[in-house]
Amino acid sequence: MYQDKVLVCKDCGREFVFTAGEQEFYAQKGFKNEPTRCKECRDQRKAMQKREGRQTQRRELYDAVCSACGKETKVPFRPRNDRPIYCSDCFSKIKAAR
After folding, report:
1. Beta-sheet pairing, 15-18 with 5-8
2. Is the same domain home to 12 and 44?
3. Can you give the residue range of the structural domain that contains 87?
4. Which H helix or E strand runs over 8?
5. Tell me, what's the pLDDT at 49?
6. What is the four-CA torsion angle of 30, 33, 38, 41, rounded to 10 degrees?
7. How many domains does the chain have?
8. What pLDDT does residue 39 have?
9. Same domain (yes/no): 16, 35
10. Residues 42 and 78 occupy one common structural domain
11. Considering only CA atoms, which of 8, 5, 19 is closest in space to residue 41?
């Protein structure tokens, strides 16, 4: 069976306990590696990644004219002249027809 282990956090250098229950959970999930950060440092890291993730998810939108209906629209990619651009309504119709 599992026994509590004392590990050292790679971020703050403090010791933390990897409990028998946590070890069992890791084994059930198939995780091969022990945690390398204490709970406080893991929580801080998750919060930082969440904040940064929101910032990187903002995409630049480009103005375009729908090739099917002529309506002005915005798309999350730079339009190229050799490819048709569709507004969301026309794109949905074309996708449904396939």
Report:
1. antiparallel
2. yes
3. 62-97
4. strand 5-8
5. 85
6. -90
7. 2
8. 95
9. yes
10. no
11. 8
Answer whether 0.85 is exceeded by the pTM: no
Q: Which amino acid is at 92?
A: S
At 86, the amino acid letter reads Y
Alpha helix positions (H), the chain: 20-29, 39-56, 88-97
In order along its 98 residues, the chain shows pLDDT tens digits of 899 999 999 999 999 999 999 999 999 999 999 999 999 999 999 998 888 766 555 678 999 999 999 999 999 889 988 999 999 999 999 989 88
Six-digit token pair at 74? 């915005």
CB atoms near residue 87 (< 10 Å): 20
SS3 state at 64: strand
Give the integer Cα–Cα distance in Å for 98 and 95.
6
